[in-house]
Structure formats: C-alpha cells, structure tokens
Amino acid sequence: MINLVACSTITATTSFRDGFDFSSIESYSTYGRNSTFGDLQNLSDSTRNNIELAIEQGFDGNGFSYKTLKKADIVIAYHLLDHRAFELEKYNREVKYCGYCLRAGQATHAELENKLRPGSLILDIIDPKSQRSVWRSVYPLKFKADDNSRETQEKITTAVDSMLRDFPQGKKSKVSANSSKEPA
Prior knowledge:
six-stranded mixed sheet; alpha/beta; 5 helices; Double Stranded RNA Binding Domain; 184 residues; disordered C terminus; globular
C-alpha cells in the first residue's frame, strides 16, 4: 500500500498601492490600544499582544525602527476576521481601505477579497499623511479550538513573516542585499 501525503504551503495574499514610495520607509508605529482603532474589534489582550509582538519582531527583523505614532513613516494596523461583517466594514472605513486602489503586487482586488474568511489576519500599512491604507495582506491563521498559547503565537508569527515577504522591495531590502555581498 502506498500513502501519498500532499503538503500545501499557505501563503499571504498581498496587494499595494503602485506609486507609493516604499523605499523611503525607515520607521513604523502601531495604533494605541486606547485609540479609535483599538475599539474596532473585541480581541482578548493575549491575542492583541501576540499580534503586536509578531508585528514588532517582523518589522524590527527587517531593519525598521519603532517610533511614536507622530514620528513614524508608516502605521501598521491589523484586524482578525470573525463572522461579524460589520466589524470589517468599520475597520475598512477607519484605515480608508480602497481595494481598487491597491493594484500592484501579486494579488488582484478579487483575489484579495476572496481570502477574507473568518480566522484570517489582515495587516494594513497606513500612510500617515493620507491616513489611507497603501498595502494590505491577508493570511489564514487556521486556529483550532484546542490550540494552546504557544501554537497560537506560532501561527500568528508565521502569518506576519509570510505577509512581510510580500513587502515591496525598498531601501531596507536593497541595503540588506548590498551588505551581504562580499567585498571585491
């Protein structure tokens, strides 16, 4: 008897605004828990902590520095989808999401919208000048009812890492690529 097992790799679905200068980004921030953004969704403190820790580790690991909201080049927003469509609608209004405006990247508007299922994590990069989303990524977390805190954190970290692989190549990536070359 032969058993075949197929492994499917989960990838993020990402799209971004063409023309936004991602190469100028050096710093990021997140919205505070007491902000309007923090009130958009009812998440436990441990889930918020897991998501925010993964965001900080992911961006720090890619060479970006954390700054206060007023001094950051971009602001990172997130939303964990559930069965309540009105929460996503409120979130989209808050981040001024325009799916048709985010035409660059690997996903079309329809592909991105098709990935919006309960249990998926959405990350948005907000341009602080326009207060509008310029990058969105969606990743299915596939939480299970019996996941412990370590498994939940690993799924969130994997999701954020996968999402950041689709970050448009900018100054940070070029610096990393150039610094890894050996001197002639």
